[in-house]
Amino acid sequence: LNASQPDYKGVVPLALAYLQVKTSDGRQAVLVAAEVGAIDVLEYLVKDCGCDLNRVGGTNNMNVFHLSTLNGQFSFIKYIINTYPQHTYLLHSTNDNDALPIHAACASRVTQLVTFLIDKMKCDITTEDKIGYTCVTRACTSGNLDLLKLLIKQYNLNPRIFGKSSSPQVAVASGNVHILEWLRQEYHINVASFKNGALPFYAAHFNSLYCLKHLLNNYSFDINAINPFD
Questions:
Q1: Strand partners for 57
Q2: Fewer CB within 10 Å: N-end or C-end of the chain?
Q3: Do 121 and 165 fall into the same domain?
Q4: Per-residue pLDDT for 4 more than 50?
Q5: Which of 94, 156, 186 is nearest to 171 (CA)?
Q6: pTM here?
Q7: Is residue 146 part of a domain?
Q8: Are residues 135 and 125 in the same domain?
């Protein structure tokens, strides 16, 4: 559109204004582009439309790196780093839940992205968010066992067997039986007594029928037990 042409007067400003409109969860257009890894769209929004990469929105006010790492958009992330180096500080910014983009990356299943952020971008992998999630427990949600092993064994992270939002709890809540079984064997966990027998309740609460069946069929749980956290 050419704003100098009479027919278009007012149209361009209006169109650009709409790019600042937020979705129902508070995301603007640049954040939506980040979520899906749309490099061409982001370039147009920033260079031609003047949209701001510093915007935050969505659940817990996430930035472009939170959303792109969560969805494993590796090429998109490298594009931002290379094209807009002044915005790389956002890799080290937390959302309202104190989560860093590296936490989201660990939930994405993309091992290459995680190692890039750790080794090249020097992201901090030792922090936890307000609900007790760490890089390790986020990897448990991803179902990527190789990534989980890498974080624990190569990067020497705490396996988070105990404490708030423990890795066995998160594995069960995410329905990742293979993660739970590896943790059990590696750290000699008594599954039936872990957290006072709470694991089946986590499986039921998070609608993980496969995991619930696995627990009840393979371990000595009382099907009529009362939730230990009630």
A1: 62
A2: C
A3: no
A4: no
A5: 186
A6: 0.86
A7: yes
A8: no
Q: Within a domain: residue 39?
A: yes
- Angstrom distance (rounded) from CA 91 to CA 34: 13
Residue 165 has pLDDT above 60, yes or no: yes
99: which 2 tokens? Answer: 């989560």
Give the chain's domain count: 2
Q: Please, what is the angle between helix 111-119 and helix 74-83, to 10°? A: 30
Instruction: Taking each helix axis as running N to C, give the angle between helix 177-187 and helix 209-218, from 0 to 180 degrees, rounded to the nearest 10.
Output: 40
Domain end: 129, 144, 176, which one? 129
Give the DSSP letter of residue 19.
T
123 shares a domain with 22:
yes
pLDDT band, residue 9 (cuts 50/70/90)? very low
- Residue 123, pLDDT > 50, answer yes
What are the beta bridge partners of residue 62?
57
Do 64 and 105 meet the contact criterion of CB atoms below 8 Å apart? no
Whether residues 113 and 165 share a domain: the answer is no
Which residue segment(s) compose the domain that 98 sits in? 16-129
Coil, strand or helix at 17 = helix
Contact between 188 and 217 under an 8 Å Cβ cutoff? The reply is no
Closest to 191 in 3D by CA, of 171, 220, 158, 217: 220
Distance from CA of residue 31 to its chain's centroid? 15
- The verdict on residue 2 lying in a domain is no
